[in-house]
Amino acid sequence: MKPNSFGILVAGMHRSGTSATAGALQHLGVALGERLLTGAQDNPKGYFEHEGVVHVHETLLRELGSWWCDPRPLPEGWMAMPAARRAEDDLVGILRRDFAGEALWAVKDPRACRMVALWRRCVERLGVASGVLHVVRSPAEVASSLRSRNGFGKPLGELLWLRHVLDAARDSDGMPRTVVLYDDLLRSPVDVMRRALQALGADVPVIDAAQLGGLGEFVEPGLRRHGAGTADANTAISAIASDVFDVFQGLAAGQDAWARLDALRARFDEAWAGMDPIVGAMAEAVFPTLDGFAKLEAEGYALRSQLNAQLAWSEQAVLDHRATMDERDALAHTSAQTLAETVARADAHAEALAEQLRIRSADLHQRTLDLETRADELARSEIERQRLESEIASLQQQLARARHEYSDVIHSASWRWTAPLRSLRSRLGPGKP
């Protein structure tokens, strides 16, 4: 669980507006978990109950020999029984699995009124802060609603109401707690829920316009379908229920009146002492049949859980398929775009290479022409060199012949005979015979 996690236990008698309260919390951003029971004819907008939590509560009640409509107190020392230990482990597991990442969360189930002590042990074990939100409706209206839905008489409805609200008040002593009246919730849901969260010490979520509009549409006066009905003869139980409701009205108005409930609880226990044997005998006669229904409901719950799991898997499979298709389309688009960009880059690169090739080809052609020109020049130079060499060779031959002839002349007899004449002439100087 998050270190700053805060959990809210919505506790209230059946038909008291706990569903509307939990739904309001959800509209304000409070996490209720994803495994919620679907609505039914008696509660079309939904129960907002975590199906796993409800299953644990119902199982524990049956193992304790009780039922949701059993007004008898739970067995003495039930918290130490193995059934309670198993329920505690199951609830802790649900909280760790479904609410570990939530900073503000809530669990709602009217059966929790009988099990506040168990929930205290669960949150203490998890080391998270928590508070109890008591949702209270007039006992007469609750009894009327139960008569309409379940066929219960008013005395049983009032007994159940007292048992639930007094057990929850007793076991939440010392915890952060506050009271929401169903009438107040219908009149002003936003203000009531904001004050309730502040009273519990929970961080109030930021409420935007969409949430306000959604909450106003969800919590509306049409939710009230049962009034108090016609008044029955006044009884001791009716009088106690009326007095207890007065105290809760005062608590909702800000009065510190929790201690007044202790005396009223004592009055209820005294009145109950005379009814316990009769109710116990009736329970022994009726509850075996109810236990058979419970087993059928348990089987139905298991099937519903399997169906919900299958539906969740199917929905997730559809989402995964859609995500895969979207990813495929995105990948195809990206691949096409990437391919186009790659082709464009390749075309540009190829064009650049072609341009370089053209430039290099032109340069090579020019160099080839230059080399051919130089080759022609070299060829002409070679011819000229050969000609000059031939001339030089011819001149050398002529020089050699001249030298030979000169040598022949100066070694000839006539050259020697004419030597005096050449000497005289040189003495006489040039121009003289």
At a glance:
The chain is mainly alpha-helical.
Helix content: 55-70%
**Strands of the largest sheet, in order across it?**
2-1-3-4
CATH topology of the domain at 6-258: Rossmann fold
Task: Give the class from helix and strand content and strand pairing.
Answer: mainly alpha
CATH class membership of the domain at 6-258: Alpha Beta
Which H/E pattern describes the elements? EHHHEHEHHEHHHHHHH
What summary fits the major beta sheet? 4 strands, parallel
Number of helical elements: 13
| Gross CATH architecture of the domain at 6-258 | 3-Layer(aba) Sandwich
Principal-axes shape call: rod-shaped
**How large is the share of residues in beta strands?**
5-15%
Radius of gyration: 56 Å
Averaged pLDDT, please?
84
Weakly predicted, low-confidence segments: none
The count of DSSP E runs of length 2 or more, i.e. the number of strands, is 4
* End-to-end gap: 149 Å
Describe the overall structure.
The protein has a domain at 6-258: Rossmann fold, CATH 3.40.50. The mean pLDDT is 84. The chain is built from 13 helices and 4 strands. It is rod-shaped and about 195 Å long. The protein is mainly α and 433 residues long. Helix 6 (154-171) packs across helix 10 (236-252) and helix 10 crosses helix 11 (260-410). 29% of the residues are buried. The chain has helices at 18-27, 51-63, 82-99, 116-126, 139-150, 154-171, 182-187, 189-200, 209-218, 236-252, 260-410, 413-417, 419-428; strands at residues 6-11, 104-108, 129-136, 177-181.
Provide the fold topology.
Elements: E1 6-11, H1 18-27, H2 51-63, H3 82-99, E2 104-108, H4 116-126, E3 129-136, H5 139-150, H6 154-171, E4 177-181, H7 182-187, H8 189-200, H9 209-218, H10 236-252, H11 260-410, H12 413-417, H13 419-428
Parallel strand pairs: 1-2, 1-3, 3-4
